Task: structure prediction
Amino acid sequence: MKESISTEPTGIHFMVNGRPQQRGSKSPHVVRQGGGAVLMKNGRPVIATRDSNVKSGPWMAAVRFEAAEVYNERPLLRGPVELSVIFYFARPKSHYGSGRNAGRLKPSAPLYHTQMPDLSKLIRTIEDALTGVIYKDDAQISRYGETGKDWTESSERACITVKPLDCEVLHTPHLDERNAL
Result:
């Protein structure tokens, strides 16, 4: 379910369905040209980084898509913002009983989601995904609102709120300009 953009002080709210993914570790690699030759710039090899979590790219694309749908090509925020994100994960089957207790949580089932993925890495993924879609740079995030990882009985998702802490905006660059940077 999509929510429309809110112009109230509560911020911009939207939800992204799917299993939240964290950014993985970065590994450097040398960029090669079509024939296998190393791409050089100013006499040095061009180095790029690769994310070790292949699922983070599609997750970030989904976050960008939902954010763009809700934010609707408005000018990028350029002042300080507050970011709030709650990540919802399905409980594993081992948290539930079996037989006549099927569907009931075991007393030993944890109340809090304390395993992988790390909350800080999940948030970093959202920060990076929203750069150039809602705000100009993730350095603008000057505070975090409510953040956390919770269990859910329904679908896995992330509920995201970006709250401008002032009203300054920056014109949205063309997609080609963003990709050229």
Observations:
- Residues 62 and 161 are 15 Å apart (CA to CA).
